[in-house]
Design a protein that fits this description.
heterodimer; A: 173 residues; alpha/beta; Glutaredoxin; six-stranded mixed beta sheet; two-stranded antiparallel sheet; disordered N terminus; B: alpha/beta; 32% helix
């Protein structure tokens, strides 16, 4: 009985701590400032067959989001990415959503379900994911209008929150 | 009334997830006492199962019970809970290799063929405790990163003296770690371990405990004992 009581207390304490830590980690996704280096190459084919090359987006701020349809936080942030696109419709802004490890069919089926119309780039063999050295999903990069890497975020966020929109707008000259 | 209570108790005990495991304990060199669950069995194999920082889920408890029914003795060790550590992956980095070695030796002393199974960051204390020891190890989506920042090469924790280990690396394919699995294998092989890879299609990490599990993941989670038994057979220890 003594053992059971002790074990129950330990379990309760662990659960309590877990709750706190999960809350902490939920809000722990923070933008990390980058030093403005040039990004790795990104040349991919979109769902409609169009070729996309990051270098051709010079003059626009670009959000590059690595995601997968099986990743719950990726799914959760997608609607806010769509709202962000609408919010910045009058600015030179683009979203490139790289579907890590997924083929065009899988990516298309998912993107239709979430009703997003930004550019989705299937990366079935994860070659681009590896080139960009992405270890967790979602991971997002903000590239400024001069084509320089300015921020990275590992984890999900609400992309249309004022603070985030302000951060993106600060990347315009 | 008494009869109703007896029926309720009998039903509760018959409920698979509530089948009691025996509490066992081991005094550690650190002065702590490790209390762990032991599902005794009469067969010739023993599985020392080390939980991640998330502890054991009902499916994992049930799998241990089912394995014992099949003759595989199972010891389930939850370091984080036992030592009251914060339930964070890095807590498992602080388990003393000597303490891990102590529980491994205790399991080995049963005279049964020893297998170890660890999930996620629990791979770290298991591998550190097995330096220069012979063992068959199943690692489920191990997290061996020392540092993994986007845009930079990841650093893996350094391990040494794994030359007597046969490792079966179990990697759910729906995982951000999947593209990096060859690097993970190379990190283990650089410590001289023999590593084999088993890719798990259509599954995500922690598929046996996910609240958002797909039908397939739920089914596989309920089959954890079957899967573990099969994976134990797949190690090159047999």
């Amino acid at each position: 009985m003594q053992l059971i009581t002790t074990k129950s207390l330990l379990t309760c304490a662990s659960l309590l701590m877990a709750g706190i830590c999960f809350s902490a980690s939920a809000s722990a996704a923070e933008f990390r400032k980058l030093d403005g280096a040039l990004p790795p190459a990104l040349t991919m084919t979109g769902l409609d067959g169009t070729r996309h090359e990051l270098a051709n987006y010079r003059g626009k701020v670009v959000l590059i989001n690595f995601w997968a349809s099986w990743c719950p936080p990726c799914r959760e942030e997608m609607p806010s990415m769509q709202r962000l696109k609408q919010k910045l419709a009058n600015k030179p802004f683009a979203i490139l959503a790289v579907a890590s490890g997924e083929d065009a069919q899988e990516a298309a089926a998912f993107i239709k379900r979430v009703k997003a119309d930004f550019t989705v780039l299937p990366d079935p063999d994860a070659a681009v994911t590896k080139r960009w050295k992405v270890y967790g999903l979602p991971t997002s990069f903000l590239v400024d209008a001069n084509g320089r890497l300015r921020y990275v975020l590992t984890g999900a966020t609400e992309w249309d929150e004022a603070e985030t929109v302000q951060r993106i707008e600060s990347l315009y000259p | 009334m008494k009869c109703a209570v007896r029926i309720c108790v009998a039903l509760l005990l018959a409920w698979p997830g509530l089948a009691p495991a025996l509490d066992a304990s081991l005094p550690l060199a650190s002065g702590e006492t490790l209390v762990f669950d032991r599902q005794a069995a009469t067969g010739s194999k023993i599985l020392l199962w080390v939980a991640s920082e998330r502890g054991f889920s009902p499916n994992e408890r049930e799998a241990a019970r089912q394995l014992a029914e099949r003759g595989i003795e199972v010891w389930q060790v939850d370091w984080v809970n036992a030592l009251l550590l914060p339930p964070l992956p890095r807590s498992l980095d602080h388990i003393a290799p000597g303490d891990m070695r102590a529980i491994t030796e205790q399991a080995r002393a049963t005279g049964k063929q020893l297998f170890l199974y660890a999930t996620a960051r629990a791979a770290v204390p298991v591998l550190r405790g097995l330096e220069n020891q012979q063992a068959c190890v199943l690692l489920m989506h191990p997290n061996l990163y020392a540092r993994a920042d986007a845009l930079a090469d990841a650093d893996y924790l350094p391990f040494t003296g794994l030359n007597k280990l046969n490792i079966l690396l179990l990697q759910p394919m729906r995982s951000a770690a999947t593209p990096w699995i060859s690097n993970q294998m190379a990190a283990l092989e650089s410590a001289s371990a023999i590593v084999r890879l088993r890719k798990l299609a259509q599954l995500r990490e922690g598929f046996w405990r996910r609240e958002d599990a797909t039908r397939f993941e739920s089914d596989q989670g309920l089959r954890l004992a079957d899967l573990l038994s099969q994976w134990m057979d797949e190690t090159s220890c047999n």
